[in-house]
Amino acid sequence: xxxxxxxxxxxxxxxxxxxxxxxxxxxxxxxxxxxxxxxxxxxxxxxxxxxxxxxxxxxxxxxxxxxxxxxxxxxxxxxxxxxxxxxxxxxxxxxxxxxxxxxxxxxxxxxxxxxxxxxxxxxxxxxxxxxxxxxxxxxxxxxxxxxxxxxxxxxxxxxxxxxxxxxx
Length: 168
What we know:
The chain is 76% helix and 0% strand. It is built from 8 helices and no strands. The protein has helices spanning 2-6, 14-35, 44-55, 62-75, 82-96, 98-102, 106-127, 133-165.
């Protein structure tokens, strides 16, 4: 009987929390892309999806990846499905290995996120056949920045998940 009373009950629906954070990160990414007209950017939406797929893999289905991908494709005037496929593959891999990823230190997680960001941006460079010294510099710079801000994003989303989805 005490096991039932000790369980945490959701105070705010998890799906709404996930949706609001993903929309916030997608809008932030769109605004940053419009403010700084570079070819590449920091994929905040991808990083948010990585967190939610690691933290709550059963609550974050592949539907979120599809919705986020379409939102970014439409806002960036890309071929529909470019971001969708990348987000689907990323979400699948994170959900497949979330037990292993959760056990890693933040530095190790940052390296994995940096690898995913590097691959994500490399796909865009290859698909648009846009090779130059400036683009390669952007690739390296944004990969390093993404690795450095991963602990901040992780901490922020963890705080939001704990604060708004459970009654203490």
